[in-house]
Design brief:
Blueprint: E1 5-8, E2 17-22, E3 29-32, H1 46-49, E4 65-68, E5 71-74, H2 77-95, E6 100-104, H3 110-124, E7 129-131, H4 138-148, E8 166-170, H5 174-177, H6 182-190, E9 194-198, E10 211-213, H7 220-233, H8 239-245, E11 246-247, H9 249-257, H10 261-268, H11 272-284, E12 288-292, H12 294-297, H13 302-315, E13 325-328, H14 335-338, E14 347-348, E15 352-353, H15 357-367, H16 381-386, E16 394-398, H17 402-405, H18 409-417, E17 421-426, E18 438-441, E19 450-453, E20 458-462, H19 475-485, H20 496-507, H21 519-525, E21 528-529, E22 555-556, E23 575-580, H22 596-601, E24 607-609, H23 611-617, E25 624-628, E26 633-640, E27 648-652, E28 666-669, E29 676-677, E30 681-687
Parallel strand pairs: 6-7, 6-16, 8-9, 8-12, 9-10, 11-22, 12-13, 16-17, 17-18, 23-27, 24-26
Antiparallel strand pairs: 1-2, 2-3, 4-5, 4-18, 14-15, 19-20, 20-21, 23-30, 25-26, 25-30, 28-29
Helix pairs in contact: 2-19, 3-19, 3-20, 4-13, 7-9, 7-10, 7-11, 7-13, 15-20
The structure holds iron/sulfur cluster.
Protein name: Molybdopterin oxidoreductase family protein
InterPro entries: Asp_de-COase-like_dom_sf, MoPterin_dinucl-bd_dom, Mopterin_OxRdtase, Mopterin_OxRdtase_4Fe-4S_dom, Prok_molybdopt-oxidoreductase
Keywords: 4Fe-4S, Iron, Iron-sulfur, Metal-binding
Length: about 700
């Protein structure tokens, strides 16, 4: 490791530590282990281990592109930036400031997310900003804030997980999405702890479980209510904890008691003995954790579903003490930090609310503007995308690929295509960048320094290991250059550490307080947990031990009711489709589809069918079949497996075009988090011809 630069993986929220050694050839660095970083202790999955391949000039953009006569053609940086500035300013002049939109990404560093939010509010003066993290864990964030007063993915370090007595993992498959995390589940079992996995599919993660519950997609809320009903009926509630540290229990208890276990069995398809066994394991353990991922969160009732699982934790006294509690396995690399620093439609840095006068005054003072000059809250991600070509006429998009990753993706591609002006900054020519008027090639993880906040709330430092190729600039340089052209050059430094120093001041006093965190400190401590209000504060690996972050210090129960998915199966569309990821691809695949080793391991989309269903449909392994929904049609090979429910089919969502699972996904939105219902919609499967 001595000659290797210590940094972190470009992909998921585990933010595994890795080293980068200089190398000869088109790929300028070699990824090596970094055993000292505590989260992954040297382990990397195939995505992280092969990440350097995207640094090669042949795999990525190295020149700005400008659309001329309908074609994207190489252009100089001044030409490209002038065109963007003219496109954004012209639109604002013609239609008003809110006609200019900004769309960010959960993979951007904290510094970029902060600068992008500031750019939108201060330079463009628009309320129309949101980011793709809205599609990731926003329901968990909303549920966490509702119950605990603050949202931090995990309120404890991952190292606490093996010390729990029982862990319920709901709708997550870390064995494929973040394999180094699995060691914590294995250690849990080695320590005598129990693992319950809730997933409609018997995934690689479910294979590890002591108990696998396979509910119908979209019924996790009912499952949690059924468990709570049994907890109450069996007298297994923690009355002392409920009395001393919570509010809202009577209404929540009554709501759970209205959901009879027999009814829950009928709704979820989970046999009642399994439900009872889950309660026995969870309540029989000295401490319990519930971890959710996208399964329960990406629903039109995602926030209530998260609340139902939190209620189970609170009723059993499993919160606010060591080795117990609720947490969310955040997905994107900076899904956590990306939602703390102001690129979300309703937020200012420090996890402050944009409609809070005190928050506006604090941040406006740091930015040197009048509080009333800041726009108000804007639309959520899907609503912003849906308004393209209508109320929003021009868009600046950074580090996101909604043509593949947004729900009802055909519709979103049409909306993007109807814009007067689209500018995209990205590392590669993604499917969304292909639609742009201007594409800017920007630096990536190994070529720049910046901080990320992992799923534990640990702020880590990515370090520059190699110079970018000629023709590539950083997103911070892009924002500075655009701010100059749009008449506000001050306040947009291009050095990441300078941006971070301002972020510290802007976040000071907020829920996500970074004031005591600095680059030297992160480097010395291998990450610092927020909140960390002072330089001599130790950081906060475990939240809520003394009090919850609510005004009265108590956690809040929320009474919730089961309701069906927004789109239930019927005679035309008799099956449920659920979506997810595979081991060798990441999110929209914009980067990982350019890595040969990963493409060999996962070359394309497929649809998983239970053999019983396949026989009924006359489908054999490998047959090309059409999946048809109200929103689109896809054609992929069939993969037969008994690991999925016979009433459910599964598609991974990493591929574009006729293989794109998000052609089907339903943009019905959660009323609180505005999360679309990615995880449950109605489809039919038929012969491709
Ligand atoms: Fe990268 Fe996530 Fe794999 Fe770790 S688990 S190497 S962070 S993709």
């Amino acid at each position: 490791m001595s000659d290797a630069t210590e940094t972190h993986c470009p992909y998921c929220a585990l933010q595994c530590g890795m080293g980068l050694r200089p190398a000869d050839g088109p790929v300028p660095v070699t990824v090596v282990e970094r055993p000292a970083f505590p989260v992954n202790q040297g382990a990397l999955c195939g995505k992280g281990a092969s990440a350097a391949a995207v640094l090669a000039p042949g795999a990525r953009l190295t020149s700005p592109l400008v659309r001329v006569d309908g074609e994207l053609r190489p252009a100089s940086w001044p030409q490209a930036l002038d065109r963007i500035a003219a496109g954004l300013a012209g639109t604002a002049e013609r239609y008003g400031r809110d006609a200019v939109g900004v769309f960010g990404g959960g993979g951007l560093t904290n510094e970029k997310a902060y600068a992008l939010g500031k750019f939108a509010r201060v330079v463009l003066g628009t309320s129309a900003i949101d980011y793709n993290g809205r599609f990731c864990m926003s329901s968990a964030a909303a549920g966490g804030i509702r119950a605990f007063g603050v949202d931090r993915g995990l309120p404890f370090p991952v190292a606490d997980i093996p010390r729990a007595g029982c862990v319920i993992l709901v709708g997550g498959n870390p064995a494929e999405t973040m394999p180094p995390f699995v060691r914590y589940l294995r250690e849990l079992k080695e320590n005598g702890g129990r693992l319950i996995v809730v997933d409609p599919r018997r995934t690689r993660t479910a294979e590890l479980a002591d108990l696998h519950l396979a509910p119908r997609p979209g019924t996790d809320l009912a499952l949690a209510l059924g468990m709570l009903h049994l907890v109450v009926a069996d007298g297994r509630t923690d009355e002392e904890f409920i009395a001393q540290r919570t509010t809202g229990w009577p209404e929540t208890r009554d709501a759970a008691m209205a959901h009879w276990p027999e009814h829950v069995e009928a709704v979820t398809g989970v046999p009642l003995p399994q439900l009872r066994e889950a309660v026995r394991l969870f309540c029989g353990a000295p401490t319990g954790m519930v971890l959710t991922a996208r399964g329960p969160e990406q629903q039109a009732k995602g926030t209530d579903t998260v609340s139902a699982w939190i209620n189970l934790c609170l009723a059993t006294g499993n919160a606010g003490r060591p080795y117990a509690g609720y947490g969310c396995l955040t997905g994107q690399g900076n899904g956590q930090g990306g939602r703390e620093h102001g690129q979300k439609a309703d937020q200012l840095p420090g996890y402050r609310k944009l409609d809070d006068p005190a928050a506006r005054a604090h941040v406006a003072a740091v930015w040197g503007v009048a509080p009333d000059s800041l726009p108000g809250p804007g639309r959520s991600a899907y609503e912003l995308l849906e308004s393209l070509g209508g109320e929003v006429r021009a868009l600046l998009l950074m580090g996101s690929n909604p043509v593949v990753s947004a729900p009802s993706s055909t519709r979103i591609a049409e909306r993007l295509g109807s814009l007067d002006f689209l500018a995209v900054s990205d590392v590669v020519l993604s499917e969304t960048a292909e639609l742009a008027d201007v594409v800017l090639p920007v630096t990536q993880w190994a070529e720049e320094t910046g901080t990320m906040t992992n799923l534990e709330g640990r702020v880590v430092l990515r370090r520059k290991a190699v110079d970018p190729p000629e023709g590539v600039r950083s997103d911070l340089e892009v924002l500075r250059a655009l701010a100059e052209r749009l008449g506000r050059p001050e306040g947009f430094p291009t050095e990441p550490e300078e941006v971070f120093e301002e972020l510290r001041r802007a976040s000071a006093g907020g829920a996500a307080d970074y004031a005591g965190i600095s680059y030297p400190r992160i480097a010395a401590e291998d990450g610092v947990f927020w909140p960390c209000p002072e330089p001599d504060h130790p950081g906060t690996p475990r939240l809520f031990l003394d009090r919850f972050a609510t005004p009265d210090g108590r956690a809040r129960f929320t009474a919730v009711q089961h309701r069906p998915a927004a789109e239930e199966p019927d005679t035309d569309y008799p099956l449920r489709l659920t979506t997810g990821r595979v081991l060798a691809q990441y999110q929209s695949g914009a980067q990982t589809r350019r890595v040969e080793a990963l493409n060999q391991a996962a070359p394309g989309a497929f649809v998983e069918l239970h053999p019983v269903l396949a026989e009924r449909l006359g489908v054999r392994e490998g047959d090309r079949v059409a999946v048809v929904s109200r929103r689109g049609r896809t054609v992929t090979p069939a993969r037969l497996t008994a690991a999925i429910r016979p009433d459910t089919v599964f598609m991974p969502f990493h591929w574009p075009g006729e293989a794109n699972a998000n052609r089907h996904t339903n943009p019905a939105l959660d009323p609180v988090s505005r999360m679309p219902e990615f995880k449950a919609c109605a489809v039919r499967v038929e012969a491709a011809d």
